[in-house]
Design brief:
With 399 residues, this protein is an alpha+beta fold. It has helices at residues 2-25, 88-146, 151-178, 183-207, and strands at 28-30, 32-33, 35-50, 55-58, 63-67, 75-76, 81-85, 210-212, 217-222, 229-230, 235-241, 245-252, 264-269, 276-284, 294-301, 313-330, 343-348, 351-356, 358-362, 366-371, 378-379, 393-395.
Length: 399
């Protein structure tokens, strides 16, 4: 019986010792270690197959169709005119813009070849007038001292000097404005640049009057006739370019800033989900679908698998960024991740301390940490139930 009491006493003592260690050192927590890893960010969307792919052709300006020199089913070359709009007003605007450029250039040339030499001559003349006025003033002062002229004559001579001096200052300012870097030259140069920009814009709009084939191919649809008034965004023709299969995908517009031409992707047809094939982003529509809040993206498939069919549904995973050996942590370790001041709980001398971090690339389940952590740091997951400043014993691990 005594042995039983003794054993119970030892058990109670051990329990009290364990509880004491927990109170003093904190609970044992499975922490997550920070380590470098390859981080990839991708965006996913669904779309369809176009084989051969099609290009919707439309006008970029409002205009009346003057001529449609191609027919449905016709093979066309890149740059070949497909639709010609009435460009009378656009040509007149382009000529007017060219005239404005010529006038602005003539004004700048006038400053350099006429106004500047005239200003130089005017400065010399003003200097000579001032010198002459000062000489006259000196003579009048001598005559006044000898009593040959009165105060009025002396005052007139002084006023002549003041007037000549003011004229010299004005002539000097006029020359400065006509010199390179002067105000008149700067204004004339700015006017010339503005006129040239307007001329380029007018020429661009004039080019829009001819809708040309963007690539070689076959016209598979035509919905425009002579006399029609066309609007930007309306499809006039559908062109099927010869060449590789492409994918047409609708991405959420919030991902538009992440997409770029040339990005690599992996795609799979829904009917063959376990078979993936390579693709490359080749086109981003400049407009956004207002109804769906999406942007149309096209991807080239260099080596299409044999099972792909026209209008087959596909899923596309586009790699938009990659970091090799990036210092990254799991998303669920972050606090206030969507704010300007994210932070994590880091093990510091047996305590859970708040550690501000600066975030970078976001991948699938991981976020790059640009500042605030170093390899080997141990982080406390939210599920551990440890509050900021609390004691703990870290049982280190890796994400």
């Amino acid at each position: 019986m005594r042995a039983v009491y003794l054993g119970a006493g030892l058990a109670v003592a051990a329990l009290l010792a364990w509880q004491g260690s927990v109170l003093l050192l904190g609970p044992r927590v499975q922490t997550v270690g920070v380590a470098p890893r390859d981080l990839v960010r991708s965006v996913v969307a669904t779309g369809r197959v176009e084989a051969p792919h099609r290009v919707d052709v439309g006008a970029q300006i409002v205009g009346t169709v003057l001529r449609v020199p191609v027919d449905e089913g016709q093979t066309v070359k890149a740059g070949q005119p497909l639709v010609e709009l009435d460009d009378g007003e656009l040509r007149a605007a382009a000529r007017e813009a060219d005239v404005a450029v010529a006038q602005a250039r003539a004004r700048l040339r006038q400053l350099q070849e006429v106004q500047r030499p005239v200003a130089v001559q005017g400065l010399r003349q003003a200097q000579a007038t001032l010198d002459n006025a000062r000489a006259t003033q000196r003579r009048q002062e001598e005559l006044f001292a000898q009593g040959y002229v009165g105060q009025a004559a002396l005052d007139d001579a002084r006023k002549s000097v003041e007037l000549a001096d003011a004229q010299l200052g004005a002539a000097r300012k006029q020359l400065e404005s006509a010199q390179p870097g002067g105000s008149d030259v700067a204004i004339a140069a700015a006017a010339l640049a503005q006129a040239q920009a307007n001329a380029e814009m007018a020429q661009a709009r004039l080019r829009y009057a001819t809708v040309s084939a963007p690539v070689d191919g076959v016209l598979i649809s035509r919905d425009v006739e002579r006399g029609d008034v066309v609007q930007p965004g309306k499809t006039l023709m559908v062109l099927s370019p010869a060449g590789e299969t492409q994918l047409v995908v609708q991405f959420d517009e919030k991902n538009l800033g992440l997409l770029a031409l040339g990005q690599k992707a992996l795609a799979s047809a829904d009917a063959f989900a376990d078979q993936r094939f390579a693709a490359e982003l080749t086109y981003i529509n400049p407009g956004v679908d207002v109804q769906r809040g999406s942007v149309e993206v096209k991807l080239r498939v260099p080596t299409p698998p044999a099972y792909l069919r026209q209008d087959m549904t596909v899923s596309v995973d586009v790699e938009v960024a990659r970091r090799a050996h990036a210092l990254a942590v799991p998303v669920d370790l972050l606090h206030d991740a969507e704010t300007a001041k994210p932070w994590v709980l880091k093990v510091d001398a047996g305590h859970a301390r708040r550690q501000p971090v600066r975030l970078g690339l976001r991948g699938t389940g991981l976020v790059e940490v640009l500042d605030g952590l170093k390899p080997g740091d141990q982080l406390v997951p939210a599920s551990a139930g440890v509050s900021e400043g609390g004691r703990l014993r870290a049982a280190g691990g890796t994400p």
